[in-house]
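Researcher: We're teaching a course module on how sequence relates to structure. For the next exercise, students receive a sequence and then see the predicted structure as C-alpha cells, so they can try to spot secondary structure elements on their own. Here is the exercise chain.
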Amino acid sequence: MTEEQIKSEVQDVFRRVFGDDTLAVTQKTTQDDIEAWDSLEHINILSIIEQKYGVKFDLNEVMEIKTAGDIMNIVSRKVNK
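Model: And here is the predicted structure for the students to work with:
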C-alpha cells in the first residue's frame, strides 16, 4: 500500500470522525489544529483505523502519536511489513 493511499484513507477516517468532508489532514496536523480532536476522538480514530487495516496499536505507539502523520507512519509500517 502506498503512502499516498494511506494518507487518503486516514484523512477519510478523520473526516468521518469529525463529520467534516472538507477537512484537510497533513503529516503535520495536530490536536491543536482540530478543535474537536480530544482524547475520546483520538481513541475513536485509532479504533476505526485498527478495524480498517486489521492492525493493533500497542501502548508505546499510542504514546508516540502527536500528529496525523505519526498515525500514517505507524499504519504504513504495519501494513507494509
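Model: If you want an answer key for the exercise: The mean pLDDT is 95. DSSP finds four helices and no strands in the chain.
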